[in-house]
Amino acid sequence: MAYAAKFASVFYGPFREAAESPPQFGDRRSYQMDPANALEAMREVALDVDEGADIVMVKPALPYLDVVARVKADFGLPVAAYSVSGEYAMIRAAGQLGWLDEERAMLEALTGIRRAGADIIITYFAKDAARLLEQGRA
What we know:
The protein is α/β, with parallel strands linked by helices. Helices cover 48% and strands 13% of the residues. It is built from six helices and four strands; from the N terminus they run E-H-H-E-H-E-H-H-E-H. Strands 1-2-3-4 form a four-stranded parallel β-sheet.
């Protein structure tokens, strides 16, 4: 699996904070993609496919559903979408504040990622989603 399209994203923030791993200087934009440049993502995926990748990843997931869909349509390979810590934190916090139904929002977000073309979803919600699926609530 290739980290084919990894965007420079504010949505990595909660993980970086928890891991105490913010950049010591500058930022990571020098080796992560510009969020506005989907064409670069497609070029990076093509390079990874040419090098033999059999699964390609888009990270983060929700802000880049268009990229997930384009990668799936253009390359036909299994696509992994990584729903990162900031995506998780937004839904979890809004649920805790009573602003939305956390379980339904989680399932809606994961369904949207799948509908965009992701064959694999990497998510902090994995255990919660699995529990709901086992209970027939999803």
